[in-house]
Structure formats: C-alpha cells, structure tokens
Design brief:
With 288 residues, the protein is α+β, with helices and mostly antiparallel strands. Among the domains are: 98 residues, 2-Layer Sandwich (Killer Toxin P4, Chain A), CATH 3.30.430; 90 residues, Killer Toxin P4, Chain A (2-Layer Sandwich), CATH 3.30.430. It has six helices and ten strands; from the N terminus they run βααβαββαββαββαββ. Strands 1-3-4-6-5-2 form a six-stranded mixed sheet, with helices on one face. The chain has a four-stranded antiparallel sheet with strand order 7-8-10-9, covered by helices on one side. Strand 9 and strand 10 form a beta hairpin. The relative contact order is 0.13. The N terminus and C terminus are likely disordered. It comes from Macleaya cordata. This is Gnk2-homologous domain. InterPro entries: GNK2 (IPR002902), GNK2_sf (IPR038408). Keywords: Glycoprotein, Repeat, Signal.
Length: 288
C-alpha cells in the first residue's frame, strides 16, 4: 500500500493547476470509451464540495493510479490527505490476463468515468470488462466488501445440456477457479480454467479474480459467495458475470481471456561424440 500525506489548500488555485494535469493524464481514448461500464456504485448521501481539499486530493489520487497501475502488475492502491476531512483512499485493478497498454487505457477511462458518473461523491466504484476503480473517504484497504452486482451481460439461453448437468459442471468449474485464485502461489489472486461439457464437444471457460489488498482467505470467501450468485442468476444462460468491490467471476462458452503461450524448450543439439566402436590391439607375450 502506498500512502501519501499531503495538505491541499481550500482555495481554487491548486484545483486550477491540477485539472489540466489530470486532463493530460486522462486523455480522450476512443478505443477505451467503446466499452460501457459493467456497473457503477455512487453514494449520494456523502458529498464533497467543489474546490475543497478532498476534491484536490481525489484528483491527485486518480492521477496516481492512472500512472502506476499498469506499472505495478495490474493492481495499485494508495491514499492522499492529512486528516479525516480531506483523506481519500483508492485502488485500481486490471483483469489479470490483459496487456499493460489495455490495463492503462481502461484505468484512464475509468478514472474519468467515475468523476463524471459520481460527481461530488465521497465514495464510488466503477467497473469495466478489463478494470475496476474505487475510492472512498474511509480506509477500506484489506477489507472484503460484499456488494454483488449482476450486469446485463449474456442473455442467450443455453440449450446444450440438461439444466441440472449444466449447473453441476458450472458450479464445479467456478469452485475450482475460486480455490486457485485465492491460494495460487503467484499471489496475483487471478485464475482461469475450463471444463468439458459431456458428450457435446464444447467447453465452459471461467475466470475469477480478487483485489490484492485482501487476504487469501477473504478472497476465497468472496469468490465462493459469488459462485452461488453466478449459478443462481446465470446458469440457464450461455455466459454470465458477477462483479463485486472485492472480487468477480465470469464464464462463457468461448475462451474470452488471453492465454500465455509458453514456447517449447529447444531440443538439445545432436551429440558430437562418435558412435564408432573403438579398436583394440591385443599383444600376447610368451613367457621366457
């Protein structure tokens, strides 16, 4: 976790300086804007005032996460402020399989979108297919928060298997992904997997991920809770997704995630040792 304690003045001078900086850091990116948010959470009862220290610190925080998330392996959390009134805490998480440039473009778009969609809000979360950005006036780091959402994602009914069999395979796949994401030795809290649909020749592909500020046990609890959510909401469809502040799950009937191709190990060069048998000369001596 990266902590920054900075005092922002209440006048508008710093804000005037920061806004052009933020606009430079968060440029118009038409490719990223093509994707709509999966969900947005705004807390309308808690607002900050324009030109306040909190607003200045929020702009600093958004600038920081847009600059650092893709450089930090797809996850970054930090805070700005010097007291309870102006402190802001935030994080950004990119989907574990995306390239750094995709991660950065998504965080840029999300940082702009969260300000546009939740103006003056002291707490907000915005989630896209490839990333999530969240901030709050309260320190939420290391706290698993259950606020599950069901985006309108894939409404195609599945007619491949008996519903009970499809649900069973989906549940087993998502459970396995939850375990791997939470306890994988890499610490990235991200996992993908696939499962064959019996006798159809087709497969289910799944993905699970947690924000890396929570513990492995909390990651597992979050994902296991979402297994029940995704089976309950979406098992009659060909695909589905559930998203949360701390974790998310998704499945489809096609591979929607990037797979690292590990190059085959080079074959050893042929041995230069001759295979010709050795010649032996035998000497016989007669005793004197």
């Amino acid at each position: 976790m990266h902590l920054h304690k900075m005092q922002a003045t209440n006048n508008g001078v710093n804000l005037i300086i920061l806004l052009p900086i933020l606009l430079l850091v968060i440029p118009c990116t038409p490719i990223a804007r093509a994707a709509d948010p999966l969900f947005i959470i705004c807390i309308p009862t808690q607002n900050y005032t324009s030109n306040s220290s909190f607003e200045s610190n929020l702009l600093l925080l958004l600038k920081s996460i847009t600059s650092n998330t893709s450089l930090s392996g797809g996850f970054y959390n930090t805070s700005f402020g010097s007291n309870e009134d102006d402190s802001v805490y935030g994080l950004a998480l990119c989907r574990g399989d995306v390239m750094p440039e995709v991660c950065q473009n998504c965080v840029i778009n999300a940082s702009r979108g969260i300000v546009e969609q939740c103006p003056s809000g002291k707490q907000a979360t915005i989630s896209y297919e490839f990333c999530q950005v969240r901030y709050s006036d309260q320190n939420f780091f290391s706290m698993m928060v259950h606020a599950v959402k069901y985006p309108n994602w894939n409404n195609t009914k599945q007619d491949i298997l008996d519903p009970d069999q499809y649900t069973l395979i989906l549940n087993d796949l998502m459970t396995n992904i939850s375990n791997r994401a939470a306890f994988d030795s890499s610490g990235n809290m991200f996992a993908t997997d696939e499962a064959s649909l019996t006798s159809t020749g087709r497969k289910l592909y799944g993905l699970g991920q947690c924000t890396r500020d929570i513990s492995r046990d909390d990651c597992y609890k979050c994902l296991r809770g979402e297994v029940g959510d995704i089976v309950g909401c979406c098992s009659s469809y060909e695909g589905g997704i559930v998203v949360d502040n701390s974790c998310n799950l998704r499945y489809e009937l096609y591979r929607f995630y990037r797979v690292e191709v590990v190059p085959a190990s080079p074959q050893p060069p042929p041995s230069t040792t001759s295979t010709r048998s050795k010649d032996f000369v035998y000497f016989f001596f007669n005793p004197i």
